[in-house]
Amino acid sequence: MKKLIVFLLFTSMFSAQNRGILEIKEDLKDKQGLTKSLSFIDARSDKTIGAIDSKGKTEEIAFGQKDLNAFFNKKFQDDNKKFGNNDIVIMLEDLKLKSEPDGKYSKITYHIKISSFIKRNDRYYFVNRIDNSILRYFPTTYAPEMATEALAQITNLFIRESYAHPAMRTMIPEDKLADYENIIIKNSKLFSTPELPKGVYSSYKQLLDLQPEKGFFTVKNNKGKVVNIKNGQDLTVPMREIYGFIEDNKISVMTLVGLLDVERDDKGMYIITSRVEQTPQDNSSIMIGAMAYGFVGVGLAAILTSGLNKRKKGDTQLYKVYIDSLTGNLIFPWTENYVAI
Questions:
Q1: Dist. CA 316–CA 341, nearest whole Å
Q2: N or C terminus of the chain with fewer C-beta within 10 Å?
Q3: Sign of dihedral through CA atoms 10, 15, 19, 20?
Q4: Residue 177, SS3?
């Protein structure tokens, strides 16, 4: 038997009458009052999300609103009293979910690709995006409710962070919005410069623009391995406060298992790692945002509370994990049909 699970965004409690309908509780408030309006573009080529088996039924996941743009626009206006000058546009490019039984639990894998822009005079400027697959385990009995609430939390976090997030300088014409990634890449120094300059980078944005921190340098041991970063005052800079560095035309980035070298192929930049290695040990709801973004480098500073994960030989199967060309975050595979290293 198939049953429709309606996915209403920004919720904090379940409806007792219908397991799939979630009451809207969380708001879209812009605490800094920078935003004038919020628009939503559903650019998915396939509008189906997926299904979850629970209590002997197949629960189809779906949005509860037919007109998502009208819903988001009205909710933003209702939730805010102070307005600024920015027109924020959210574009949902993909949203998929699959469920697999795992004992008393359901293994839920999401793939979400959602981007944000500032719109000025029919021109768009990229702000941020999530392009990642997230793996979560929920008790099978409550899997539909918990899975949809997790999606709501991710989307809520993304939209609210987009209000004050700095936008890129590259202008994207309205009729070229679907091709925004290629336009930005063509205008970035990182992907157009054959010889990369040596330096230390505190953020991926600096790396994208090839603008290293002035005075920062790497310190190596007698084996030539980078063991430290220092600033212009010869003071040690915590590794968690940098995104990465370039040495000998080679990029290295900071991850949950320490520094890893970046490789390239026809699909883009990647590191050799795994989802297990790059998942915070704390698997609470607080970590949902971190897992959604796939933080690398300086983004780890906000979530590292118990030190780095330790890489143990043979502990996990390693494979290519690509780096988002616009944000520098990790993109974990949607399927497990990846090529292991």
A1: 11
A2: N
A3: negative
A4: helix
Q: What is the pLDDT of residues 100-142, one digit of tens each?
A: 999 999 999 989 999 999 999 999 999 999 999 988 899 999 8
The answer to whether 287 and 317 are in contact (CB under 8 A) is no
User: Look-up: residue for tokens 């949607």?
Assistant: 334
Phi-psi region of 105 (alpha: psi -120 to 50; beta: other; left: phi over 0): beta
What's the alpha-carbon Rg for the chain, to the nearest Å? Answer: 21
Residues with Cβ within 8 Å of 34's Cβ and at least 6 positions away in sequence, in order, are: 84, 85, 86, 163, 164
DSSP 100-138: EEETTEEEEEEEEEEEEEEEETTEEEEEEEEEEEEEEEE
339 pLDDT band, cuts 50/70/90, is very low
Sequence-ordered alpha helix ranges (H) in 24-92: 68-79
H helices of the chain, where? 68-79, 143-162, 180-186, 204-209, 288-293
pLDDT at 8 over 90: no
d(CA 121, CA 123): 5
Count CB neighbours of 245 within 10 A.
Answer: 23
Report which of 325, 334, 311 is spatially closest to residue 265, judged by C-alpha positions.
Answer: 325
| CA pseudo-torsion sign 242, 247, 253, 258 | negative
- Using alpha carbons only, give the angle 76, 156, 16 rounded to the nearest 5 degrees: 95
Q: What are phi and psi of 291, to 5 degrees?
A: -70, -35
Q: Tell me, what's the pLDDT at 292?
A: 61
Which ranges of 224-297 does DSSP label H, i.e. alpha helix? 288-293
- Cβ contacts of 286 within 8 Å, gap of 6 or more: none
pTM comes to 0.86
